[in-house]
Specification:
The protein has 270 residues and is mostly helical. It has eleven helices and no strands. One of its GO terms (molecular function) is undecaprenyl-diphosphatase activity.
Length: 270
C-alpha cells in the first residue's frame, strides 16, 4: 500500500512537470509546491534531470523538423555560403548566443540561487512578477520573423532565460515574453524560446549524469522515477501542443490571470 501511494505521488509530480514545463507558469515553482503538499522530500538533482529530459524528448520530437532544417541548412551554408541557407544559419547562431548567459550564470551561481530562492514565498512572488509581465505584453504584435533577429535580441532573450534559474520564474514564460517584447512575431518567439530550451536541457543532462549515477535513492526509487519520467514525457507532449494553439490565438493573458491567482493564494495560505 505504501508503495502504491509513493508511486501515485511521483505520478502526480510527473504530470505537474509535464504540464507546466512548456507553459509560462514555472515547472520548478509548481514542483516545489507539489513536493511540499505531497510530503515528498526530493533532494539532489537526479529527479529534476530525469523529468527535464523527458520534457526535452517530447519538445524535441515536436520541433524535430525545425531542428533538422536548422542543422542541415547551417552545414550547407558553412560549406557553400549560399544565401538561401543564411537565415537558418543565423537563427542557429542566435540560439547558440542566447544560450550563453544561462550557461555562464548557471555554472557559476545555480547552487547559490537554489539555496536562497527555493521557497514557496519566492515562488509566489515570482508568479506575480510573471503575471505582470504576461499582462504587459498581452496585446503586442511583433513583426520580426526568424530572419530578422539580431545578436542583441538573442542576448536579451538569453539573459531572460538566465533569470529563470530562480524557482518560480518560468523559463518558457521569460523567454517568450522577452522575445515578444523585443518585437518577434508570436510564432517566432515560440520557436526561438524552445530552441533555446533544447541546448540548455541537453547540457543539464550531460552535466547531471553523475548525479543520476550517484543518487542514493536510485535503487529504492527506480519505479517511482520511471513513472514520473513516462508521465512527464506524455503530458509534456500534449501540453506543448496545447500551448502552441494558445500562442497562435494570442491568448497569453489567461496565463497572466492564473499567475496572479496562484501567487496570491500561495502568499495567503502557504
Amino acid at each position: 500500500m505504501d508503495n502504491l501511494i509513493l508511486w501515485l505521488k511521483y505520478l502526480i509530480l510527473g504530470i505537474i512537470q509535464g504540464f507546466t514545463e512548456p507553459i509560462p507558469v514555472s515547472s520548478s515553482g509548481h514542483l516545489i509546491i507539489a513536493q511540499q503538499l505531497l510530503g515528498v522530500d526530493q533532494r539532489g538533482l537526479a529527479f529534476e534531470i530525469l523529468t527535464n529530459t523527458a520534457s526535452l524528448i517530447a519538445i524535441g520530437y515536436i520541433f524535430r523538423q525545425d531542428i533538422n532544417r536548422l542543422i542541415v541548412n547551417t552545414i550547407k551554408y558553412m560549406r557553400t555560403r549560399d544565401k538561401a541557407y543564411k537565415s537558418d544559419f543565423l537563427f542557429a547562431m542566435y540560439v547558440v548566443i542566447g544560450t550563453v548567459p544561462a550557461v555562464i550564470i548557471g555554472l557559476l551561481f545555480k547552487d547559490q540561487i537554489e539555496a536562497y530562492f527555493s521557497s514557496v514565498r519566492t515562488v509566489a512572488i515570482s508568479l506575480l512578477i510573471t503575471g505582470v509581465a504576461l499582462w504587459l505584453i498581452r496585446n503586442l504584435q511583433g513583426r520580426k520573423r526568424d530572419g530578422d533577429l539580431t545578436v542583441k535580441d538573442a542576448l536579451i532573450v538569453g539573459l531572460a532565460q538566465a533569470v529563470a534559474l530562480i524557482p518560480g520564474i518560468s523559463r518558457s514564460g521569460s523567454t517568450v515574453i522577452t522575445s515578444i517584447a523585443v518585437g518577434m512575431k508570436q510564432e517566432t518567439a515560440l520557436r526561438f524560446s524552445f530552441m533555446l530550451y533544447i541546448p540548455i536541457s541537453l547540457g543539464g543532462l550531460v552535466l547531471g549524469i553523475s548525479d543520476i549515477a550517484n543518487d542514493p535513492n536510485r535503487s529504492s526509487l527506480a519505479i517511482p522515477y520511471i513513472i514520473a519520467f513516462l508521465a512527464t514525457l506524455i503530458v509534456t507532449y500534449f501540453s506543448m501542443r496545447w500551448f502552441m494553439n494558445i500562442m497562435a490565438r494570442g491568448n497569453l493573458k489567461y496565463f497572466s490571470y492564473y499567475c496572479f491567482i496562484a501567487g496570491i493564494l500561495l502568499l495567503i495560505f502557504l
